[in-house]
Design a protein that fits this description.
The structure is a homodimer of 211-residue chains.
Chain A (H helix, E strand, L loop, with lengths): L9 H23 L7 H8 L6 H4 L3 H21 L8 H18 L1 H10 L11 H14 L7 H21 L5 H15 L4 H8 L8
Chain lengths: 211, 211
Amino acid sequence: MTTSAPPGNRFERRRAATRQALVRAARQILAESGDTSVSIQAIAERADVGFGSFYNHFESKADLFDAAVTDALAEYGEAVDGHLSGLEDPAELVSAGVRLSAGMAESHPEIMEILRHRGLGQIHSARGLAPWALRDLERGVTSGRFVVDAPAVALSVLGGSLLGLLQLGCSRPDIDRDEAAQNMAEMLLHMLGVPRDEARDIARRPLPDIR
Amino acid sequence: MTTSAPPGNRFERRRAATRQALVRAARQILAESGDTSVSIQAIAERADVGFGSFYNHFESKADLFDAAVTDALAEYGEAVDGHLSGLEDPAELVSAGVRLSAGMAESHPEIMEILRHRGLGQIHSARGLAPWALRDLERGVTSGRFVVDAPAVALSVLGGSLLGLLQLGCSRPDIDRDEAAQNMAEMLLHMLGVPRDEARDIARRPLPDIR
């Protein structure tokens, strides 16, 4: 859960804690079912805050759920990006991004369930991993590492594929997720112009443990 | 809207018409917002059928919405497959499947909005386009046209990418959808092992108009 800097006084701290409790409850609901038909009353009870305080923080239920998706996406982006800091090669960055994201299905199940339920609408968003992925794609094109005519279309493939991989792990719980993620990273790198043998090698390099 | 064969007598015809009206209303709701929190009463009113008749056809609201997704997927699969009958090459089939699906955002907006809201859970489903796509992938591997280690992972990429493309058309309404679909088909064919020049050529061949 991302939090803003600690506010200055007791009133502000309590106010921030109430908002955070509502966002946390909304994240849990999104992860459990993606079904947002629950009442504001029920959300407030789950967050253990008074019903009346809801409207001090959010204009509507949709507003709260949007904030919850944003919050989860920011945490997702930070978790993955924090593990990519040593990498320079755009191909390694794309591969590690896919594989680390897949690994988060185990280490950060709530975030990944939220992505599975709400992620499609975020593929071209300015938040989450999309801006990083687009930056890596464009760097790879500039350096000649990637051959991509339409970065926005490539981003649609990367983001959609990642969601497809999360869904695969859910539809076929017996599948080896790490191996599936390596296969996917290899396929995507080859698609982006990396020779197949090199793509296979990069997709199987040791990664930092995100857990 | 898919329908079963015309039933034999007036009672059965009326019964089928009631079910179909409920499914049609559920499809509209799924396409409009994907928000299924609406009451059964409101769905029955929208379908112009009595509230009491709902439970003659469906056990629950979730049951109805599942039937609506199935109905839309079946129509989607038939619409695309009906245009692919002359094609034999798995590469042409995959390319045409992507491009025709993208074209359906205009010609069949309701189905494609349902896919955008509910399609991720259907990527590995036994309905819709997934079984066809998996069959084409496996044929391509057998004939040596494609190089794919894990067909289920490749299917995750194809299905996820298609959803990403639908979302791209929605997030960036100014984009040229046909051109984006051609770019995507080219990238995916290259990923599957088709040389890039040939992939580019196949992805730009004339297609039957699905409208």
